[in-house]
Design brief:
This protein is mainly β and 113 residues long. It is built from no helices and eleven strands. 0% of the residues lie in helices and 50% in strands. The strands form two sheets. Strands 2, 4, 5, 6, 9, 10 and 11 form a seven-stranded mixed beta sheet that branches.
Length: 113
């Protein structure tokens, strides 16, 4: 059974930085693409960043140049480095393995207005 556990969310000031982590309990982690999503209060969940098994990365327009996704296959972990945070970045951040339709429980990021 695949499990994803996110961590690293906090309350931060605008302009601050955070690094989120998502660790997977699964085999063949290196064979899968992984995504970070976020959901703000009253809004739909949206894709923030994606990293392929070949380490190709894609980002939502709103985070380009500020957020960076990476992975460490030896640790079954992906990361989301978030810089120059803005109040609009507030939300619960989830990681997912889209091919397996598995989601973590999320970690809360709050950027003060």
């Amino acid at each position: 059974q695949v499990q994803l556990v996110e961590s690293g969310g906090e309350l931060v000031q605008p302009g601050g930085s955070l690094r989120l982590s998502c660790t997977a309990s699964m085999t063949f982690f290196n064979r899968y693409n992984l995504d970070w999503y976020r959901q703000a209060p009253g809004k739909q969940r949206e894709l923030v960043a994606r990293i392929s098994r070949e380490f190709t990365t894609t980002y939502a327009d709103s985070v380009i140049g500020r957020f960076f996704i990476s992975r460490d296959n030896a640790k079954n972990t992906i990361y989301l480095q978030m810089n120059n945070l803005k109040p609009d970045d507030t939300g619960r951040y989830y990681c997912t393995v889209p091919a397996l339709s598995v989601w973590g429980q999320g970690t809360q990021v709050t950027v003060l207005a």
